[in-house]
Design a protein that fits this description.
485 residues, mainly alpha, Growth Hormone, Chain: A, 16 helices
Length: 485
């Protein structure tokens, strides 16, 4: 069997993966500018709007690790295409939603689709690319992230302008459909066979099926999924009642039980859902924490910008989308640059990106304060937010490459899913806490001061991520690790 890293089909596989990344992130970035139109058309409450953002991330996080392990065992291509199909169908449901409850249900299903496909994508990059070539693949991944983030808000604003507040926001979901269908077709043509590794039929068929199911670690999958739900749910329902907070200690208790179960499962000779030994790899543990903290803070930047520009300054959704164009294009460029150099410079690129992000946050606060007092036009935010775009390109893809570099390929999907679970938990908690703090601040202050408070909170979180990145750099200098093949 030829080495996957020398298989010429790997670049076509990467193209399919990037199409899906483009589709899924396009959907996320479009939603940010569509929130006011959704609220107007469906009469959605602030809590319902928060669920539009957080509910997607919630179900995404619940299925990620189990989906990653399923891909490692049963074949990543088939699970990937299943996720694309679910995401595409749920996009149709979201676009046709008659009310906020239907929309949020569709968003939950979208999150499941994304949770299925995302760890397979990162796992396949790990599988098909090595060394500097892997860095370039992650660079293309990061460039796709930047382009989709750039196009999403502008396309969303344009669709809302053309379709009006009633039809326009629906088109922002339906635009995913042709991309999803094209991806499924190309995946069926190009992905290696078999797409799913099923147990062989015959006299040993029943035993094989049982072994296959046990290798998926169903108890571990259920424990972790319910734990993630219990931890995240209080944050997305934080303003409705104090009762959901009772789930938080229960969620941490379930994490404790999950760790005990994984160790027991390995001890009796079964393949655990997650090889807990990967946490002894410092680069993986540190990188996962960096990603969780980065997404805890920075995910809310574009939500706050869209809300501040539209609600606080009366601009249109199209104008709000334009504020992110330079940042997203610079993000794509930075990701491409960093992808070629991540093997050489390592975590120094991530540290530089975090410093750029802190500078961009501070400069954005200055622009808003000066605008509040009539000294600057609000469009100067394009300049300050550009530094945040450079940060995104310098942090996300390089950190993914560095975090997964030393992880065994047999756990490429599940380890990528662990990292992404940290991202999703950071996203859900961050959006809930930061937007909640901003809305609370609005009761005593102006939109400008609420924006400043939100960006200040993001900056504090980013400082913690910077501390972990510096620690990881020192760990590497003391005990340098060679990337895994």
């Amino acid at each position: 069997m030829p080495d996957a890293a020398s298989n010429p089909i790997r670049w076509r596989i990467l193209a399919v993966l990037l199409m899906v990344i483009f589709m899924s992130l396009l959907g996320v970035s479009i939603v940010n500018v569509a929130l006011p139109a959704i609220q107007h058309d469906l009469g959605a409450s602030q809590s319902a709007l928060q669920w539009v953002l957080s509910g997607y991330a919630l179900t995404f996080g619940i299925v990620l690790v189990a989906a990653g392990r399923a891909g490692d065992i049963m074949g990543r291509g088939g699970i990937f295409l299943l996720g694309v199909g679910i995401f595409t169908v749920s996009s149709v449901a979201a676009g046709l939603a008659p009310d906020a409850k239907w929309l949020n249900l569709a968003r939950f299903v979208q999150g499941i689709g994304s949770g299925l496909l995302n760890p397979q994508g990162l796992g396949m990059i790990q599988h098909y690319f090595r060394g500097a070539e892997r860095g370039r693949a992650f660079g293309y991944f990061g460039s796709t992230v930047g382009v989709s983030v750039a196009i999403g808000p502008v396309l969303g604003g344009l669709l809302i302008e053309l379709g009006g507040p009633e039809l326009g926001w629906r088109l922002t979901f339906l635009v995913n459909v042709p991309i999803g269908l094209a991806t499924i077709l190309l995946g069926l043509l190009w992905f290696p066979r078999p797409l799913i590794h099923l147990p062989r039929s015959g006299s040993g068929g029943s035993a094989s099926l049982k072994e296959e199911l046990l290798s998926l670690d169903p108890v571990g999958s259920a424990l972790l999924g319910v734990a993630v739900l219990a931890i995240l749910f209080p944050f997305v329902e934080a303003r409705t009642s104090i009762l959901p907070w009772l789930l938080l200690p229960f969620g941490f208790f379930l994490v404790f039980l999950w760790v005990k179960w994984e160790r027991y499962y390995a001890r009796i000779g079964r393949p655990p859902m997650v090889d807990l030994g990967i946490f002894s790899i410092r680069s993986f543990t540190n990188g996962t924490v960096i990603m969780a903290l980065y997404f805890l803070g920075m995910t809310s930047v574009w939500v706050l910008v869209a809300l501040y520009v539209q609600e606080g300054n009366g601009m249109t959704a199209l104008q709000a989308g334009m504020f992110g164009i330079p940042a997203a294009l610079l993000s794509a460029s930075a990701a491409h640059w960093a992808g070629k150099r991540v093997v050489r410079y390592g975590r120094k690129i991530v540290i530089s990106g975090l410093l750029l992000g802190l500078f961009g946050l501070g400069l954005s606060i200055a622009v808003v304060l000066l605008h509040e007092h009539g000294y600057l036009n609000l469009w100067w935010l394009l300049v300050s937010l550009s530094f945040i775009g450079l940060a995104q390109g310098s942090v996300i893809s390089p950190n993914q490459a560095l975090t997964l570099a030393d992880v065994p390929l047999d756990y490429a999907g599940s380890s990528a899913a662990i990292m992404q679970t940290g991202q999703r938990m950071g996203t859900s908690v961050g959006i809930a806490v930061i937007t909640g703090a901003v809305f609370a601040f609005l009761s005593i202050a102006s939109w400008s001061m609420a924006f400043v408070a939100g960006f200040g909170l993001i900056g504090v979180i980013l400082l913690f991520a910077l501390g972990v990145a510096i620690k990881d750099l020192r760990d590497r200098e003391m005990a340098p690790a060679s990337p895994a093949g």
